[in-house]
Amino acid sequence: MKTLLILGFLILALFSCQKGEVISPNNYTCNFNFEDSSQPHPRRSNYQAQIDDMTQNGGVVGVSMSVQDQDGLWLGSSGKADLYNNIDLQPCHITRVGSTVKMYTATLILKLQEEGKLNLDQKIAEHLSGDPIKRIKNAEKATIRQLLQHSSGIYNYIQSAQFQTASINNLIKEWHAEDLLQYAYDKPAYFEPDADVQYSNTNYILLGLLIEKIEEKALYQVFEEKIFRPLNLKYTSLAGKNPVPSNIIRGYIDLYSNLQVIESTYYSGWDYYTADGGLISNPYDMTVFFKALMAGKIIKPASLQAMLSWRTPKGTRS
User: Domain 100-228+299-308 classified CATH 3.40.710.10?
Assistant: First the structure.
């Protein structure tokens, strides 16, 4: 069986850009110490052409991509890491990878089950208490497995108009789990637990609190001890340790839809400290993680099978 793993990351669209901060090119210096098969890869020209098209014709500032297949590992990039300082994007540069962290969070939960510290079919309320359990509908009866599968029915805080307004009004605010969960308080559940599937970031904030409660450590410390260091992921971290590393590539956004792009590197404060976002990495480190995960080097085959189980939604919701 042929296996193809493609990981890619985009920097948001470019039209015209307001000024950023002066950063030395040396700040972005990075390199890999591994056997790179990108140059002899038979599809290297095709892969590079695809990402070049995105930056040259698709209005995208930068793209970084990793492809792992039977011919080896290809790493490539196109565009800019920093427009203001005219820094070319390199495959080793680090960036935020958003909700991809949920797979790492799920892996950690399964490791804790293997260590006998929890059971997926326990209710989350057996471990957590207080307002997150009392005021979030379904939190008292949803299981850990249902949170992992997005079958808990728990309201997604990001859908709250109040949260969206608050985040826009304070773009650089650093939000903690409790700050975000309040936007799910007293909101109706989507359905009874296990009745259907509906994506909800709130599920993974609760799972992050569960990890911290069981391990009695900050979330980033648990990730480091159980995943990052064992796999030697030198370019991977949780933002909770260092929210905006000095060498992270710059982000850009057309905030007011007026074709005026501004730098948004410091605008991601709602996911610095929670398990639904906040991961910083690059395509190479992520390839290492996923290869190890699928090879059974992080969790056991039975745990991986549970992780790969699929729940099909009964319908489509906005």
Answer: yes
